[in-house]
């Protein structure tokens, strides 16, 4: 058992009370801690804090392999059994309450579904916040001698890489210079959507998931290298196709390579591990080739004293000129950004289009907004984006109900107390965005897709607990591609709404499955019908 000083506990308890007060004030208490909070501070004895070992623990004592099999069976939306972590977590929260401990192979973590407790976690994330180890990805770097950088490293190493990468990715002045490239790609994507529509009435995009995936990869390549990969043409180069498939596999294999234990899977060379390794090998092999070509071009341009094609420096040239990173670190950072940029952004757009299909009234409102803000302009600019308020609200609402990264994780750096339990330093805490979004104490009518709740001045507007909605994470370790992702999403969505109305061929609810990220479980058969 971990010994914690009483003074430190009291201090933390008062912050838990503050979080609880917010919630009771707004919609009633959400956490156990809050519900136990005393009404007259003076007369009340310090609350009893339970030890770590008292945390509810599903399937306590069962071997990991058995737990894994049971977990596979609770993830029953897809045809074959698979580990649908978001469903499993939801089931466990319902059964064991908003906090429980999970021991799985070498992993020992605590899961929470409580905004006040999430706030407490971030208070002790430390100077160099750490996420849950993505062991299969890290182990691949270890065995192949590749660097871990902004996504996968920790401590001072992470900080050094993050500092270099943040500037070109997050500073609004820099992101504004990417809008033209993002707009170019979106225009080509729109043309492609128009030309490949098929199905009985010629309006359906048959493999929309893959088409949006190509859009996201084409967009991020334009931002990172200032190079178009040619993905929106009919005949894609073989190598590019391999790259796309490999990026898919990186996510698709993550659960099979991670559970019940990543190192064990590596040693046994299981199917999941082999798929993960092969995918990363391909991503590095092709990615490094593209970067070599780009760096050489950039150096030649520099030697001739010429700026970039459009007068701006691309991401790769900026980080290459920083002198703070080795060539291997530059490669690994860029590849990690690409890996993090593609499925996340394309799936978010896919979920948004799906949600819009059941809200024709909302499509009309979006059309009205885009007409007012952009009018007949062909190119969408940074200035336009500032005024697309409903578009922003729509994307936020998608990320509330369908957060592609459905849990945020942190390794707490100090002993703390969460919802009345001692949590020792170095414990990994998983915060479920998916379950918080469905909690009626945090969101009114939580299951309803209602973007209006995010609009200032709207009747539906309600205060949201600041830690209940974190689709891009929190603090210094939050998503470094957030601005780029939001820009890409707003620009393509605006162009789609300008030209089409959206309908599902067979309207139905599409459940999510977890393939590393929260993905649709089946093809959505969305039709793009030309607006009159
Ligand atoms: C809708 C799209 C996206 C979503 C929902 C999303 C979400 C997230 C989340 C939840 C995290 C973890 C944050 C945390 O632990 O606090 C993250 C980290 C990260 N994201 Fe994104 N992301 C998106 C797009 C992108 C794009 C386009 C890029 C690259 C251009 C990117 C690059 C990264 C990187 C490098 C990290 C790790 C940052 C670090 O550890 O310092 N993401 N993202």
UniProtKB/TrEMBL annotation:
InterPro entries: CYP11_CYP27_families (IPR050479), Cyt_P450 (IPR001128), Cyt_P450_CS (IPR017972), Cyt_P450_E_grp-I (IPR002401), Cyt_P450_sf (IPR036396). SUPFAM superfamilies: Cytochrome P450 (SSF48264). It comes from the Eukaryota. Keywords: Heme, Iron, Metal-binding, Monooxygenase, Oxidoreductase. Heme binds at residue 479. GO terms for biological process: vitamin D metabolic process. Its cofactor is heme. This is Cytochrome P450 27C1-like. It comes from Branchiostoma belcheri. The lineage of its organism: Eukaryota, Metazoa, Chordata, Cephalochordata, Leptocardii.
